[in-house]
Design a protein that fits this description.
- The complex is a heterodimer of chains A (about 325) and B (about 220).
- Chain A has helices at about 1-20, 20-30, 35-50, 55-60, 70-85, 95-110, 115-150, 155-190, 195-215, 215-225, 230-250, 255-270, 280-305.
- With about 325 residues, chain A is mostly helical.
- The radius of gyration of chain A is 19 Å and the shape is elongated.
- Chain B is mostly helical and about 220 residues long.
- Chain B is about 80% helix and about 0% strand.
- Chain B has helices spanning about 5-10, 15-45, 50-80, 85-115, 125-150, 155-180, 185-220.
- Chain B is built from 7 helices and no strands.
- The chains are: A mainly alpha (about 325), B mainly alpha (about 220).
- The interface of A and B includes residues 147 and 156 of A.
């Protein structure tokens, strides 16, 4: 149970951080009350986790064989990495941190599913690229429909508001389906939890993070999206949701933040404007490279420290 | 069936509908202001300004104040999470700019009333023309603002017409001022009349500014 707390803590911090990518624009623009957004997000995260989270759990649990202690070390190292990178103000992916932790244990165990790891790393590359491509396609397709409808100011406003709420709920569903594996997959691998229990505990802990600690992040990060026009903000949330949902089908947990950045870039490409500063892109690249590396080192370090024994001469 | 009439979305669009109704009422109020202004000015140009002129001037002031109240109501409602921030800002800015016109109406009438201005016959036909084209600009501008919420008219075509009318008003304004300073009127009266003509000329200038703003708001909603 104590070991599981590390996973629940990780889920809590994931919920607190990633909810902003889902309902940030709606809350920051005050079109939706925080509590309405938080309850909707938590509910859809849980539904997503329960209905489609199993594929990710299968992938992560098979990366290496872990005992309960190693599973807890994975969660703690991921949580520490996420905290450290957040303190350093570098964009961080919980998914990469968890895989980094698993990788650390796998290296120590000298047992790694390289094929599975390759698939995961490939998906890491694919997340921002997917965000860009889907955002470009969505912008063109939805833009065509939007222009064709020739709505007046109030109709356009109303449709965009409803669409942003629906897109937010879908993005929450995709977040739950994709990211629940980060939280509890290692405990399934260690035989501590059944797949269903892992999905339930993971979904609930992410939901708890959204309900208890996402307000500030949602409002501050959401403002960045609100700087985009409402239609672009809708495209970004939808593109992020679709990208993350695709990876939920593939069974690889990915970063919603990276999908968002990709989508914002995509919107910039269509509109011919710079939507993401070069500095931000550089930070993402640094975070992208260092997150799994740091998590791997922390996991290995923690394991070594825990197993240090006093040997009297 | 339009999005707003759909009962499924009725709950979500309640405040939005209230804002639309308030904007309609605001525009209607502006039409009443314009009507009182036009009638008062007509009396003045016919040199028949009397108690009715004072009454119409007060009516113009009353409707102008009422327009301010409605605008305030719209602002309050908008900030109670009724619209997207971008739409709120657009509507706020637009109404502020529209609101400058009834203030001009009021200023013109009070100028005539307080300074006891008598318009010389030599410039009355030109002033009549200036007022008529300026008020036509104002009408077209109201139509344009309405089409933002109704999508009925062609906003771009209206921009062009208002722009043309505004240029014509500028020509007439310059012509009248030249006439005033070419005349034998007292220098003090010349300055007073010049100020009055410039003030009337501001109606079309402001209508043109609003018209361009409406066009931008409309274009922003094209992807």
């Amino acid at each position: 149970m104590v070991a599981l707390l590390a996973g629940i803590f990780l889920g809590w911090s994931l919920g607190a951080n990633d909810a902003s990518n889902v309902f940030g624009s709606a809350v920051a623009s005050r079109m939706l009350k925080f509590w309405t957004a938080a309850i909707l997000a938590s509910l859809f995260v849980l539904i997503g986790a329960l209905l489609q989270g199993h594929a990710g759990i299968e992938t992560l649990k098979d990366l290496t064989r872990l005992d309960l202690e190693q599973a807890a070390i994975c969660s703690v190292s991921a949580a520490l990495t996420v905290t450290m990178m957040t303190v350093l103000a570098l964009p961080v992916s919980t998914s990469q941190a968890v895989v980094g932790g698993i990788l650390g244990m796998g290296l120590l165990n000298r047992q790694l599913d390289l094929e599975g790891l390759g698939k995961v790393v490939l998906c890491w590359f694919g997340t921002p690229i997917g965000g860009v491509v889907i955002a470009v396609l969505l912008y063109k397709a939805l833009g065509g429909i939007y222009n064709y409808l020739r709505m007046n100011l109030f109709q356009s406003d109303g449709v965009l508001r409803i669409a942003l709420i629906i897109a937010g709920a879908y993005a929450a569903y995709a977040l739950g389906a994709n990211n629940v594996a980060n939280v509890t997959a290692v405990f399934v691998g260690a035989g501590q939890l059944s797949a269903f229990a892992a999905l339930l505990v993971g979904g609930l802990s992410i939901g708890l993070g959204i309900l208890t600690y996402s307000r500030r992040v949602m409002e501050t990060v959401g403002r960045r999206l609100v700087r985009l026009d409402p239609f672009s903000a809708l495209v970004v949330v939808l593109a992020e949701a679709i990208t993350v949902h695709i990876y939920a089908f593939i069974g690889v947990p990915v970063s919603t933040s990276q999908a968002v950045v990709g989508a914002v870039l995509g919107v910039g490409i269509v509109k011919g404007i710079e939507t993401v500063k070069k500095r931000t892109l550089l930070n993402i690249l640094v975070g992208w490279f260092f997150t799994p590396l740091v998590a791997t080192l922390i996991a290995m370090g923690l394991y070594v420290v825990i197993h240090l024994r006093y040997m009297p001469y | 069936m339009g999005v707003q009439e759909d009962p499924l979305f009725g709950f979500f669009f309640k405040k939005q509908r209230q804002i639309e109704a308030l904007i309609d009422s605001y525009l209607e109020n502006l039409r009443m202001t314009q009507q009182r202004f036009s009638e008062a000015l007509e009396l003045c140009l016919d040199h028949t300004a009397n108690g009715t002129f004072t009454f119409l001037t007060e009516q113009t002031h009353k409707f102008e104040s009422r327009a301010d109240d409605i605008r305030e109501e719209i602002t309050t409602l908008m900030y109670s999470k009724a619209l997207l921030p971008e739409s709120r800002e657009d509507i706020m800015t637009l109404l502020e700019e529209v609101d400058a016109i009834p203030r001009i109406f009021e200023r013109v009438l009070y100028m005539i009333k307080m300074q006891k201005l008598s318009i010389p016959d030599s410039i009355v036909p030109d002033i009549n023309k200036l007022v008529s084209i300026s008020l036509a600009c104002f009408d077209l501008m109201l139509e344009q603002v309405e089409s933002l919420s109704k999508r009925s008219g062609n906003i771009r075509a209206l921009v062009a017409t208002i722009d043309r009318n505004e240029s014509e008003c500028d020509h007439i304004e310059r012509r009248i001022i030249t006439k005033i300073f070419d005349s034998d009127l007292e220098p003090f009266l010349k300055i007073q009349l010049k100020e009055l003509i410039s003030c009337v000329g501001e109606i079309s200038d402001q209508a043109d500014r609003v018209s361009k703003r409406v066009n931008i708001i409309s274009m922003k909603r094209r992807v």
